[in-house]
Amino acid sequence: MNKILYLLVLILILASCKNHSERLTKALSEAQDNRGEMEKVLEHYKKNPSDSLKYKAAVFLIENMPHRRSYKPLTGFENAFESMRNYPMSDTRKEIFRKIFDSLSQKVSLKAPELIADIEFLTSSYLIENIELSFESWNKLPENKKASFEEFCQYVLPYKSANEPIEKNTRQRLIQKYSWVYKELQNNTSLKKIVDSIAGEFGHSSITNMQDYYPQPLSISQVEATKVGTCDDGVNYIVNVFRSLGIICAKEMIPHWGNHYSLGHSWIYVKYGSEQYATDVQGGVDLKTQYQGESIPKVYRERYSPQDQYAFSAFSQDVTTQYTPTVKVNIANVFQSENAKPLLCVFDADNTWRAVCKGRYDNQHYTFDAVGINVLYIIGIQNKTLITPVNYPFYIDKKKQIHHFKPLKSTVSSQLLRKYGFSSPKSTRNIDWIKSLNGGVFQGANNPDFSDAVTLHRISNFKSTQINKVKILNKKKFKYVRFYSNDKESYLAKLSFYSSQGKALKGVVFEKNNSVLKWTKGAFDENPLSFSGGKQVSLGLQFNTPTPIHSIEFQVRNDNNHINIGHEYELFYWNKKWISLGRKTARDTVLHYPTAENSLLWLRNRTEGKEEHVFTMDKYKKQQWLGFDNF
Fold first, then answer.
1. 3-state SS of 384-453?
2. Which end of the chain has less neighbouring CB within 10 Å, N or C?
3. Domains of the chain, residue spans
């Protein structure tokens, strides 16, 4: 019986080798001078029939390797990474990172980041060690929990997550560091708890402008040293951790949000038996729950081997349906564009439109599968760096209905309050900041401990991000005045006290329980984006002598995307291209424009700021933000 099984396995292996021979031959050819190292790996596992599965894994790695590249490590930053490694974990870590790397980047002569083909430099010893450790970890797991061989090849076996610089002994180091996970699994600890423990202990902080400080992805040891980087840097680290333990793990990503002016997002996906968990590198949040109702056009899972048919990239598997309801889109070629492969695009303030998916053309129609709802789209044909539209922009609402935005001849008088959507399921910060201010009080006192405090004004029914001014009726004089959050966690971007002549009163600033470290006296400067605050925070002034308070101005922490008096704005509408409706300098916190009904609009602040998004006007002449929450 054993001999029969052995012969069957051998036949399957030989058949597999024959099927893969063409791809493998091509891969070995592309290895060039490094071909000998690849052949050593194959020969190593050909010797012993008991290594048949490892041989199959080696073939899988090598035949798919020509498409894989890694960044060459940069020199000159070694001391900076070591300094970060020795710096204690704290809220100031990101600022320290910025200072160290900003200073160093001015001294070090930076070379352009260089990608090198993995198949041209990886050694046989490196690959053999990777294969051995992969199988060892994989086989430690219970049969009913471990990955299938196909899953193993895609999401456990690979020696890296993306294109991060490759380092020796990474898998071995991570196995040793996180070996405690096996005991937790034996004790039936949930996958979510384990992932959250690793992510929480790791404490990664994301920096969106990382390229200003370091121009390429970090290696695994560099991420360990800094605990700071892009989302992708943190994701690469966690992916490598779980793969080293034999557990399915992959990077998942949204190429571009439907409701962000320029960004997408990446996170980790982990699977162990029937348990699955998708979360950010900080952990703690189940993204499949948090992203319900979000504006998600597409979600992709990164894999090791390329696919012949794909919607975004050869290494991206479409998993959109796991995160959001989807529809099949079939759009006519209204503008009689060329018969070419179409792109499904979403709005991007920097590039106007950004592709998130490839489709197909058939009989004057463009078709896209599994398209996310609650997103504004446009379909276009790539023409060098430009995208040529084939039809008007359209929005797929939460009921899966499609609305096209072709401007009508009739116009309405539109009232514009903002240039960017206010809130979404993934980002409720504007609402949270406003809600937390309600119940806060402004007080005056003549004792520094406010034991004799008099309430001058209590905040209630507060709903604005603009500067608010309240008149104080109490004519008593006070040596101390403050805002007190009343047990809530509140933040102010502005706090000023005025005399009856309208002059801002001067005094010594005090900030008790202020948890904001980024700015000094953030509520008392002229920057609308700086702020002070915290739980049970007390922000105020101490005068030289008791002084009457005539009025108070305050502003909640905000994104500064409302209409700012004195700023210049320009409104555009879309009709086969973006057309300007003219520039206006804001004289009030509301802008008025005549706009065509059913038009897609884009308000730009020509004075400052980057956050802008498209909207329409509803029947009440109010801005309707597509993909955002509307209130």
1. CCEEEECCCCEEECCCCCEEECCCCCCEEEEEECECCCCEECCECHHHHHHHHHCCCEEEEECCCCCCCC
2. N
3. 2-250+265-287, 316-404, 411-421+562-625, 429-556
